[in-house]
Amino acid sequence: MDIIHLLPDSVANQIAAGEVVQRPASVVKELMENAIDAGAKEIQVVLKNVGKANIQVIDNGKGMSPMDARMAFERHATSKISSAQDLFSLNTLGFRGEALPSIASVAEVELKTKRAEDELGVSIFIAASEVKKQEAINSPQGTNISVKNLFYNIPARRKFLKSDTTELRNITTEFLRVALTNPSIAFSVTNNGNNIYNLPASILRQRIVDIFGKSMNSKLIHIDCKTGLVEIKGFICNPNHTRKTYGEQFFFVNNRFMKHPFFHKAILSAYSGLLGSDCIPSYFIYITVDPSLIDINIHPTKTEVKFQNESDFFQIIMAAIKESLGKFNITPPLDFDTEDRFDYTPPPKQDQGAPFIPRVTYTSGYNPFNYTSKITPEDSDFENSATPSSFQKEKVPANWDILFDGLKEEKEEAVQTSIPEMSESLNPLQPTTACYFQIKGRYIVTPMQSGLMLIDQKRAHERILFEKYIHTLNSQKTAGQKNLFPETIELSASDFMLVEEILPDLEYLGFELNASEKNGYAIHATPPEFSYNHAKKILTELIEHYKNTEGSVRQKMQERIVIALSKASAMNYSTTLTCEEMGDIVENLFACKSHNFTADGKTIIHTINYEDVNSWFK
To answer: CA 391 to CA 383: how far, in whole Å?
Structure first.
């Protein structure tokens, strides 16, 4: 009995849909790219329930004939490829004839389209790969396609969709990738009637500012490099504008978004010495190259692109970035060319007479180690005895007595506390004396019973703040510190939505934020633990720490928020601490439920045993 047979089209389309349509964002990407290939100058994306209920894409492109509209839903049907050779010189986006049939196999699709030369348009309704209705209609030029009830016939796939916030974030990510490659096209996206982005047609710089906020304009540095191999244009950002998470890094090749870790290293190399080890520069790089020199992964949901002679492209990208940074005096080049420089000669100085010569005075008879000696005005070179006699006779000896008495007491206390007959319940890591010092403004060092203990001061502070904030969330709402003059923080649309998601927990911690102008929040109150002057910076860092995490479970979301807030609020490295401040950190650290590791699992304490030290000197 024969066992090999052809699959029905409905099953084959669902298999293809598993590759092409993974989530609502996949549908948005495919339909937007089709609209661009149709020559549209205005594209609207209308979502209902973040695309789970309906995704509608409306464009004013050239539209389709009734026959083309019907053929668009057949497998392997496309207008972009006529031979195998065309696969190696692709200049369009929606080139693979799988998107529409794959989408129609897992959703209910209604297509309305009309060409300029046609009197009437056509409407087609398809569900589960089956054409339910086709009729002539009166419609404007262009295409209007609605994808309803995504994955309605595959409940298992629908069940694995993420939270609404996460799915909307994925959609806006795909939306922005398309919008950034086509600044001359107007784009908009709404969800349940709420406007998320409304981008008018513009130039590239304005498109970037429209997306990421007005503050981005002053941070952009232009790139323009052309060689026989490649043309590179776009913008990088001033090193002062860096993030600790990804989100503002965009590579495009021939107007197609791509991810390229190797080229990302080229940019990091160009910024070498200008950024911290945990900072990521923002960039918008557009590469134009002969299509025959690249291999685009034909799978439409992937973004990997293979370049011939990648090392050559690496060097060109790195050189272009360095040149732009140098032009804007971010990395000043050595330049001995003085031609066409503005020549400035200062006016001659007027005669001010003989220069003033400062007089150095000192007390010749003073000996700080001779308590019995007394300083008299006759022994001093100070005129009119500028130092009071009370200081000469009492304060100097008294201060030295206090100093030596203190050292004596501390030594006696250290000897007493180092006696081995100690309570067994005592924490073996607990410091034995109140003696602390810093290494490089990063580590606190203190003796303990068995050796020395090194504490990462920033991580220790993070642990202390984490347990404090967790206790706050689990107990009662914190009263924030009111700000007399609220400061406004401007965010991108995706960050604005993220803050909206976690706003209840932020308010519980003491923040009071009110939505202001476009994608902005006015900071009316902040947690009492940190200064209002740092509120904007801390809130920005909190968003950066939190933005790429899942928040579908509220308890886990609260923990992530607290981790992010404790990291953002903790002291920076290179913070100089007094002995008392170091003592407070150590004391509060050991009062925590867990003091060895941060909430995200990083080591706080490291010990050096005396036995190990002794072994160094054998």
So the answer is: 16
